[in-house]
C-alpha cells in the first residue's frame, strides 16, 4: 500500500510539477517567445534568413536602448521552431536579455539554431506549445507575448490537432498577446489572414515582409514595437 501511495505521489509530481513562487520569479518588462516557421514551404535558406533576422535585431543598438528604457531594463526571451501539428516544436531555454552583452549572446546562439522539425503548417499547435513555455519559466512580467512568423496558412487540420482559433481563445483567456510577422513571398494576402485569424490580445498587431529578404527589417520593427509597448491594437504595418 505504501508503495502504491508513493507511486501515485511520484506520478502527480511528474504531471503537476511544483510551481515557482512569486519570490523566485525574476521581474522583467516583457516575456517573449519567438515562434519560427520551419514547415515544408520554408527551404533551408529561408529558415536561415529568419534566424539571421532575429539575430540582427538583437544586435541592433535601437533594441538595446529600448530594453534599457524599460522599468526593469530587461526582457526574457525564448524561441520555438514549429511545423507539423502532430510533431512537438523545438524549444530553446529562456534567456535574460538585460544589456548589450546578453543581447549579443542570445543573437549568437539563435543564429546557429539547428532545424529539427518539418512538415505541415501547424500554427495552432505551435502557438499552444509556445504559450505553455511561459509556465514556471522563472520570470514574471505584466506583458507576455508570442511573436509568430510564417509564410503560409494553417494546413487543413486533422481531428486531433489544435486549431489556430483554439490557440487564440487560449491566449485571450490567459492574457497573452499574439503578434504576427507574415512573409508574403507566396501569398500576398497572408498578412490579412494573420490579422484576422492569428493576432489577438492587448495591442496585438501584424507586420508584413514581402519577401524573406525583407524579414530582418520587419523583425526589427516588430521587436521594437513589442519592447516599447506602443499604444496600438490589432493593426497592420
Automatic annotation (TrEMBL):
It holds the Pfam family DUF1194. Keywords: Signal. Residues 31-227 form the VWFA domain. Residues 1-22 form the signal peptide. InterPro entries: DUF1194, VWF_A, vWFA_dom_sf. This is DUF1194 domain-containing protein. It comes from Stappia sediminis.
Amino acid at each position: 500500500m505504501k508503495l502504491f501511495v508513493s507511486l501515485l505521489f511520484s506520478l502527480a509530481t511528474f504531471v503537476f510539477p511544483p510551481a515557482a513562487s512569486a519570490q523566485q520569479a525574476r521581474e522583467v518588462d516583457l516575456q517573449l517567445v519567438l515562434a519560427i516557421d520551419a514547415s515544408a514551404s520554408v527551404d533551408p535558406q529561408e529558415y536561415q534568413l529568419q534566424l539571421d533576422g532575429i539575430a540582427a535585431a538583437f544586435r541592433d543598438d535601437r533594441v538595446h536602448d529600448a530594453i534599457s528604457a524599460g522599468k526593469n531594463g530587461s526582457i526574457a526571451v525564448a524561441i520555438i521552431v514549429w511545423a507539423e501539428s502532430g510533431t512537438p516544436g523545438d524549444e530553446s531555454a529562456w534567456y535574460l536579455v538585460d544589456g548589450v552583452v546578453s543581447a549579443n549572446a542570445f543573437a549568437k546562439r539563435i543564429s546557429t539554431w539547428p532545424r529539427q522539425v518539418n512538415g505541415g503548417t501547424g500554427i495552432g499547435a505551435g502557438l499552444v506549445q509556445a504559450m505553455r513555455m511561459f509556465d514556471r519559466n522563472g520570470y514574471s512580467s505584466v506583458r507576455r507575448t508570442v511573436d509568430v512568423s510564417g509564410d503560409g496558412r494553417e494546413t487543413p487540420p486533422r481531428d486531433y490537432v489544435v486549431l489556430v482559433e483554439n490557440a487564440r481563445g487560449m491566449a485571450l483567456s490567459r492574457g497573452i498577446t499574439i503578434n504576427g510577422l507574415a512573409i508574403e513571398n507566396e501569398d500576398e494576402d497572408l498578412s490579412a489572414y494573420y490579422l484576422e485569424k492569428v493576432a489577438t490580445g492587448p495591442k496585438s498587431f501584424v507586420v508584413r515582409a514581402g519577401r524573406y529578404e525583407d524579414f530582418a527589417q520587419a523583425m526589427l520593427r516588430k521587436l521594437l514595437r513589442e519592447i516599447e509597448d506602443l499604444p496600438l491594437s490589432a493593426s497592420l504595418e
